[in-house]
Records
---
Amino acid sequence: MNVLIKRNGPGSRHRLVLPAISSSNKCETVRILQYHKQSAAGRNFSGKITVRGRGAGNFRNLKLVDFRRLIWNVPGIVRGFIYDPKRSAQLALISYNNGLICYQLAMEGMKKGDIIECKMPYLSGAENSLIDNNINNNNNNINNTHNVGSTYPLISIPTGIWISVIESQPGKGGILCRSAGAFATIIKKDFKLGLAILLMRSGIYKGVPLNGLATIGQVSNVEHKNQVLGKAGVSRWNGIRPTVRGVAKKSR
């Protein structure tokens, strides 16, 4: 939940911020999984400003996030959570049994010490024939409470479960439902077309391939939308400069 800062200054009187990650759940930064990207400040390759109102801001070290889920059928343990300045959601540090580590988007309800895994994602030709035969997907029921953060092909996930980090094209990586609090619901599966019909939070329906991957659960940091910056300086920290309305400018 959001925290109201109890100060009398005009910049923080009505400010609402998210609570920091507790020291017991926070993990140390892995330097090989972070990088620094120089801000373009709204300029193109020739140095001309193409987007006004951008520039400055705090120094940011960004994290490398595994959206393609490249480690299959290997159990991993959640070592802790960390903040990424590029994203509204928190990241979870996953340590796998084969010695590899990576960052993934943390899901709501995920805890330190949880075991997650990514099942073999892409269906072979023999398995694709099962789709044409209208297989009963209830054989691979997934318990939503014990598998939050695990990744499965959409064909193995029962309808009605919240999912996120969804692949629109198999092998391309999860590109749908990645912001804080985002999720989609599987409404039905069309085995003839090989599509899963998803209900997005916006109310629209979207069809994605059944052999694509999706993660069980809702993306963490649900209260992010309720933040109140409180003062203009917070926007400057984020690299957003003041914007002048067009009607207030002198016509030329």
---
Amino acid sequence: MISRRPLVMCCVAIAAAVMVAIFVSGRWRYYVLLNSTERSVFRMDQGSNVAIRFYGRVVDESGRGVGGAAVKVELRGINEGWAYESGGANARSFRKRLDVVSDDAGNLVFDAAGHLLIIEDVHHPGYRWLYDRNPARERGKPFGCNWAFEIASDGKPGPYFPDEKSPAQFVIVRDGVSDVRVRPSRGGSDRLWYGTFVNEPVWPDQPSLPDVRYADANIIQRE
């Protein structure tokens, strides 16, 4: 007769290893399973939110700062101490909206805490916002999306890191203008598993304003 003891011991060892991994994991600071006759509560405090100070600047088609531009921001994050209850009484994630206005020089500075920051709109009467409709990153190509910023991953900062000396640049173009002398930029840097990238200004892969073109001062003068 074949003994089942080695198999049982193996299962016990695997279960123990899983429990140890859960409790020492930096991703889940708490893992509590409570059973009662009324409900089962599964609680996970993942610590997935990171606090940052975001730096940006709103400029016109010539690179001049534009004051009074209204910027709508959506911040997504994980509710600290989130609990799942039968019936969905508690929400795991949150979405918060911020309204920010550029100063006289066009600068934007605000604090945020979460895991994803999205620029929903940059508005100023008489202007249109130029941005890249393509949010995808392709290896070997400059990344032009400057409206979605992942500021936390698995409870750790990044991959996006803002930089006061290299703010994100939001370009708004006056109505009726087609020549744009500056390019949008994510600003800061992105640190990915295959490298760190300092974000430089780049012309959008899929411009939100198809009727405008990039033309530096020399090209405009020749024309």
---
Amino acid sequence: MNHRTGHTAQLVQTAETSEVLIYQIGSSGQQLLLDAGVMRRFRKYRQMRWYQKEAGGQLFATLESNRVIIVEATGPRKTDRRTRFGYLPDRAAERQVIVERHAKSLHYIGDWHTHPEQLPQPSHLDLESIAECFRKSKHHLNAFVLVVVGTKRLPDGLSVSIHDGNERLALHPDVRQHLDSDI
């Protein structure tokens, strides 16, 4: 991912009539895709009620020459620490999942979690966490992805950004095709 340049995003419809969110990553010609299953997981864990706790997990992708396709969003786990306004993952369990998914040719590319706000923004702690994760991980990526899921209907309720350990680039959908959804 070349994360220092501009970006656009769009929704496309798949054969199963679920949406896939696509971000153009700058002028690199690369795309970041969130597949339909990942979007369903994000919807499932939005904090729509006062008693719902933050949820989150890891993002796994297949890597093609010009595409990073996020095909799995894990979590939350019973061993994660979750409150209304906080989420601390079980990092030991996450390390094990990275090994398991890598054996299936899936690459760990970042994290996701929810916030109980319509238009979520990553907190200072969120940004420190993903930066530290990027710096300490063994990988060949230019950046990790951080997705924060809010309460507003998706994709408006998503904060998607990429991080290189020092800088953050927020990705904002420029072109949207709203699909029929009751969520």
---
Amino acid sequence: MSLSQELKELESLHRRGVLSDDELTRAKRRLIDGEPGGDSGLGEAAHRYVTLQWVTWIAGVIIALVVMSHIHSERQAMSDRFDRNRGSFGTERPTWLPSERERRIQRQRAEVAESRDADAEH
């Protein structure tokens, strides 16, 4: 890579916010002066940039999983509420049929009425 291309790359990284003003100045100085490790500033900045991309990607995946989990749990809760009023075989219980509790109460009332009738006859 030529010196002008490396300078352009440094400027591009600076414009994107990957390099601070101080880092840009040091990296340019190293490139122009030809000091050993001249591209270490660029390497560090590129490493930070790639790390930022990975962190952003991982955060996006985590957020997507949390949202999908929440949607699934909400759908499951709605399904559970809907299934409470269903009888066996997954068919809805007609509203004119009494529930198990109502049938138990009706049996108890019938038993009480029968015992009253039996007491009244004696």
